[in-house]
Amino acid sequence: MTTTGRLTWKELLQRALDSNSHLKHSSFFQLSTLGLNGSPSNRTVVFRGFEDNTDRIHIQTDNRSRKVLELRNRPVAEICWYLADSWEQFRINGTVEIIDSSNPNSHRLQQRERAWYTCSLRSRMQYLGPAPGLPHLIETEHSSCQYSLDPSEGPVGTFCLLVLDPEEIDYLNLKNNSRMNFTCSKGPREEKCWTVKMINP
Amino acid sequence: MTTTGRLTWKELLQRALDSNSHLKHSSFFQLSTLGLNGSPSNRTVVFRGFEDNTDRIHIQTDNRSRKVLELRNRPVAEICWYLADSWEQFRINGTVEIIDSSNPNSHRLQQRERAWYTCSLRSRMQYLGPAPGLPHLIETEHSSCQYSLDPSEGPVGTFCLLVLDPEEIDYLNLKNNSRMNFTCSKGPREEKCWTVKMINP
């Protein structure tokens, strides 16, 4: 990743995360996708880190959620990440890979398993609940289900890892009123080559 | 607006804004649109209030920005508004009307003018700058332009009011783990009728 003498977008983002780390919600960003009805769709999700030594971004979700349906239909998304204390915004556009239990790639399945074990038990329990977005049935004393989960048990079927592969980044710094556009092309060995230009804020 | 005994979504939002008003960025939300290249587009914008006695949401922007191009092409958007202190999220989907100086409706032009005068002088000056998103030219001492603006002067040509007319709201409360879906239909006199249902978070 080269940015001709300046920080890369990933270094800018890591610096921003450091300087906003006292804000509990600094790891939250908004992920927009294409709705099945042709309208945009937008929701808050949690940053689960970069994939080892890459700039790919991990997100966890329930494979019964609408975003997974939308991403199966059109695997493209844009993250909007506003860091409230440093007044920085990262818009990260890219393609999204969906890794659920049916993934044929054993390395991908291992990543999914590792992601599962990094979750708190409370987070894992959510994947055992009723399907998100469906009508909520009031549970009576008799019908209420009690879920239980062995902490050593691997990922349940609904647990899904999303991997966003960034292709374009729009970085805005409201403190010094500067804005940069990072775009990606592929080098001779299929490696990512980034170029950056200053654009008007 | 009826929600059968519960708070309306607008009342929920106003309550959330009150309880988060100590956060400077509580009036910021993410607006997603459909990119011209078929990919989603997502950026942070500022809530400029509701239109008088309605649930329509005002946003201000530069008519040279990419979002305006995208909205001219497809006038649909989804707001994702996360209120960090109360752990509430509002996803507000609707159509967007673009009100610039060429708008044929005199009432709309008045609204645009009123919106302009509610802006700080500093905000107004931004509309005199170079086109957002274009390559940034380093200004030399000789070429640098000094903009000046008479505070009594009406809206400049690049000032644009966006009016989002909500049609569906997804409300999530992470503190009590509840979620509601509000949908809108038109009544006999074209008035909006809202229905709400509890859905699984």
Protein model, in words:
The structure is a homodimer of 201-residue chains. Chain A has helices at residues 9-19, 66-73, 106-118, 121-126, and strands spanning 28-34, 40-46, 57-62, 76-83, 88-99, 159-173, 178-186, 192-199. The relative contact order of chain A is 0.20. Chain A is 19% helix and 36% strand. Chain A is α+β, with helices and mostly antiparallel strands and 201 residues long. The first copy, chain A, has a single domain (9-130, 157-199), classed as Pnp Oxidase, Chain A (Roll). Chain A has four helices and eight strands, in the order αβββαββααβββ. In chain A, strands 1, 2, 3, 4, 5, 6, 7 and 8 form an eight-stranded antiparallel beta sheet that branches. The interface between A and B is large, with 44 and 44 residues.
Topology:
The structure is a homodimer of 201-residue chains.
Chain A: H1 9-19, E1 28-34, E2 40-46, E3 57-62, H2 66-73, E4 76-83, E5 88-99, H3 106-118, H4 121-126, E6 159-173, E7 178-186, E8 192-199
Mean pLDDT across every amino acid position of chain A = 94
Choose one word for the global shape of chain A: globular
Query: Which structural category do the helix and sheet elements of chain A fall into?
Result: alpha+beta
Main beta sheet of chain A: strand number and arrangement?
A: 8 strands, antiparallel
Write the CATH homologous superfamily of chain A: Electron Transport, Fmn-binding Protein, Chain A
Please give the CATH architecture of chain A: Roll
- Estimate what percentage of residues of chain A fall within beta strands: 35-45%
Oligomer, anyone?
A: homodimer
Task: Kindly provide the name of the CATH class of chain A.
Answer: Mainly Beta
Distance between the termini of chain A: 24 Å
